[in-house]
Fold this protein.
Amino acid sequence: MESGRAGPGEGTGMEEGIISPRRGRDDPVLGPDVVVAMVPDLVRLLARRTRAERLHVQGMALAHLYRPQGPLGKRTSIAGPFLGAPQAVIAMEKLIVLGAVRFWVMGWCGSLQRFLRIGDVVIPTSAVSEEGTSAHYPVGEKPVEPDRCLTEFLLQSVSGLPGEYMAGSVWSTDAPYRETPGKVEYYQRAGVLAVEMEMSALMQVALFRSVAVAAMLVVSDELFDLRWHTGFSSPAVKKATQAGAELLLELVLSSDLDARSDEPRF
């Protein structure tokens, strides 16, 4: 390498990429809120529940975007499904340039703690990154956390959901088949509640792009005893997912949402 020339990663972290997310000529203008549904069944549920119309957007061929009918559609869209940090972040970048500023994420997670069982709910307040996307969005010394006001709003509202709920840290991984016993035990001891695939990247991109994100994750499987117990099709997961979807729609329509979102973050 020639002397004095910066290598990869040595320049300013705020330098924009050569390829940037842009609004296409025929792309829709979105309202401020997006309900991000990670799971395919949840996307279909929300679309049916709101009688939403499908929107066609350049650069989102692997996911769907919907606009609900009625008052909800003036401020809200529904996006998903997403699998893994890269796909979720590509979509988030696109949705931001279309007008979205608040991202309400709902998905599933695997419990690392014995007190969190299938059908319970996790509200992430921080994330440990073992995915490769968030490092491309440097935020300096800022803690990688969700928006404080949206998360508090969720916490004040989840008590009516079926099952238990808990707020805390999650572990985001790119490699679900490498959730080894050693790693599970390590994160258990650290007090991490659950494992999933996107939250650390979504939190970091939200900080980098100055938008807000908060999440509600239903426990769909358990790993705390170093065996894999699945509940993806269980009545408990279905019930909690449906109730959580209804709650998110109610929160987005809340009259004091804009005032809360103007308050400081973590």
Notes: The helical segments are 40-49, 72-75, 85-97, 148-155, 181-189, 199-209, 235-252, 257-261. Confidence is low (pLDDT under 50) at residues 1-6, 261-266.
